[in-house]
Write a structure and sequence with these properties.
48% of the residues are buried. By secondary structure, the protein is of the alpha+beta class. It has a four-stranded mixed β-sheet with strand order 1-6-7-8.
């Protein structure tokens, strides 16, 4: 491999798809607080003046879905009617059924809640063992939200997107080639001012020494981003699955995470795969690692486990896979117990990525199996 470029994007919490994710996970957290064994598969759709919450929920608890949605929207920052979307004025519709008895029959016995394959990825490009492009894109999106909430740039609005292109030499990041920032704003500010402010307050503090004289900045490249949020773009739960994971650097099984309780292996299996991959890289067994786990609905054990170290592995693949089966419990119940996934904290995951976060609630980010891996291998 010669030098090449790789790009990843992120979005702010005020992006319509992320509003939908956060509402779905806020509902999940509310129900987990009351009933840790609840079954939740909650989808949200958002458009101009409308929130539609649908899905399957079986629980001993009770959730005021419209109130949870309004509170979530308000916290994100849509608390002003002039933004075109307001937590007080939007209509909220619900369409909720119970979990299918056919699915429950398999899950109640400890089996997986669905078939499918899940991927986890880790690499040594950053301290958090994440790919650098998505790491920087998330940090810029978070910074964009922070300076809005802190009123450092009072003209900013909740919607926004970031994107980073990194030049690589093989697997080593060399420099930032391009940065894209789309920042929703009021109609009282000029493009020149926005560009200067975003470079000063968002790009330079996050990207730092990785920038050089050739780095290109595209800031609100159409020249205007006033009409944003749900009035400008329909939002839907699970439509930012690459933003949620590794920015396209690793594979994706296709299932989203938000609004799903831990019996859904789409979420739990992906968290476990990240946990395993991160411990492999942290232990020095590989510089890069992708883990795939696959399940059949109602079946307790995974039907396959596979790893790919992209030529950076220090130990034979077959030996590593055997060690993984000895060290990690890949059954749904085992993963739920190890990662403590019946505890409500999932709204934190619903914006700025599910992985690479320095937060004790992100239990799948721990590297507590490093010594055990080293001892076996």
């Amino acid at each position: 491999m010669s030098n090449y470029f790789f790009t990843s994007e992120s979005v702010t919490e005020g992006h319509p798809d992320k509003i939908a994710d956060q509402i779905s996970d806020a509902i999940l957290d509310n129900l987990l607080e009351q009933d840790p064994n609840c079954r939740v598969a909650c989808e949200t759709l958002i458009n101009t003046g409308l929130v539609l919450i649908a899905g399957e929920i079986t629980t001993k608890g009770y959730a005021d879905l419209p109130q949870i949605a309004r509170e979530t929207i308000k916290k994100i920052g849509y608390d002003d009617a002039t933004f075109g979307f307001d937590h007080k004025a939007c209509s909220i519709l619900t369409a909720i059924d119970g979990q299918s008895g056919d699915i429950a029959m398999g899950v109640d016995n400890g089996g997986a809640g669905d078939q499918g394959m899940m991927f986890g990825f880790a690499c040594n490009e950053t301290p958090e063992l994440m790919p650098l492009p998505i790491s920087l894109a998330h940090k810029m999106a978070m910074q964009l939200a922070k300076i809005r909430k802190d009123k450092i740039l009072s003209y900013l609005r909740p919607d926004g997107k970031t994107q980073v292109t990194i030049e690589y030499d093989k697997f080593t990041p060399v420099r930032i080639d391009a940065v894209v920032v789309a920042a929703q704003h009021s109609d009282t500010v000029q493009q020149k001012q926005i560009r200067e402010d975003i470079i000063k307050n968002v790009i330079n503090p996050i990207c730092g020494d990785l920038l050089d004289e050739k780095s290109i900045f595209h800031i609100n490249p159409t020249g205007k981003f006033v009409h944003g949020g749900p009035p400008g773009d329909c939002g839907l739960t699970g439509r930012k699955i690459i933003v949620d994971t590794y920015g396209g650097m690793g594979k994706h099984g296709g299932g989203c995470f938000s609004g799903k309780d831990s019996t859904k292996v789409d979420r739990t299996g992906a968290y476990m795969a990240r946990y395993v991959a991160k411990n492999i890289v942290a232990s020095g067994l590989a510089d890069r690692c992708e883990v795939q786990i696959a399940y059949a609905i109602g079946v307790v054990d995974p039907i396959s486990i596979n790893i790919n170290t992209f030529g950076t592995g220090k130990v034979e693949k077959e030996k590593v896979v055997k060690a993984l089966r000895d060290i990690f419990d890949f059954t749904p119940r085992g993963m739920i117990e190890k990662l403590d996934l019946k505890r409500p904290r999932f709204i934190k995951t619903a914006a700025y990525g599910h992985f690479g976060r320095e937060d004790d609630d992100f239990t799948w980010e721990k590297t507590d199996k490093v010594e055990e891996l080293k001892r076996l291998l």
